[in-house]
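Kindly go through the entry underneath: sequence plus fold tokens. Please state briefly how this chain folds according to its tokens.
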Amino acid sequence: MPTPIENFVKTACFIIILLSGYYAIAQGGDDGMDRKNTVKYHVISQALYTESFVMSYERIVKPNQSFAIMAGYLQFPISLNSEIISASSEGSKKGLVLGGEYRFYLKKENKFSAPHGVFIGPYINMYNFSNERMLTITPPDGSPPTEADLETDINVVNIGFQMGYQFVINNRWTIDMVFIGPSLSQYYLKIKLDGEFDSVDTDLIENELLLGLLDKFPLLKDFLDDQEINLNGTNNKWAPGFRYQLNLGYRFGKSRK
């Protein structure tokens, strides 16, 4: 099954080909509007999370510079469906993302004025995911299944530098893509598992939970020491991260004087 990153690359390549054909046919003209503001919907979050609604706002502050802020709601479910552990009931699922960035549109590389063209710049974003669910643990030795309550809290802070390209269509619509976005990321993971499962090896439970986390959040692989997690404890570490995004935007502003 393709990973979210592979899906993003395929989608981005398709959009670039489509837009290249569009610009070969026609160019949007200047309609006399000075549109320094763009609101954007983050499409890529739909590929990563079961439920999400993330928006951002970009403002041109200088001829080739802008800043942007981002906020939204999303859910990060842990994938649990194995012979040992399965989710018997869902509890609360919460998620929040906040972020900001500053962009420098490369004047020498861009034919058009900002926010159309190649951009680079720093960014920071913060994620928080909280989940509660009831698990059914089936011992491999044939003992009767038992139930356990799982609570997870994941916090991620990314500080990085990005490069991307933003298309502007008819001076109104935008397609915004980040291709390169390495970061230094702080990962905080807290897990609390309550229940009677003495007949099951703790290492087996840890391994199943780890696989469930990595299925939805592959970047955690670079964070977890020796592919292990600490049950009923916290895991905290700085590690390399990465950002990629695909946003659809709408520009607005006022007439030039």
Remarks:
- The first strand starts at residue 33 and ends at 42.
- The longest helix spans residues 4-25.
- Strands lie at 33-42, 52-62, 65-74, 85-105, 117-137, 146-169, 173-180, 182-195, 233-242, 245-255.
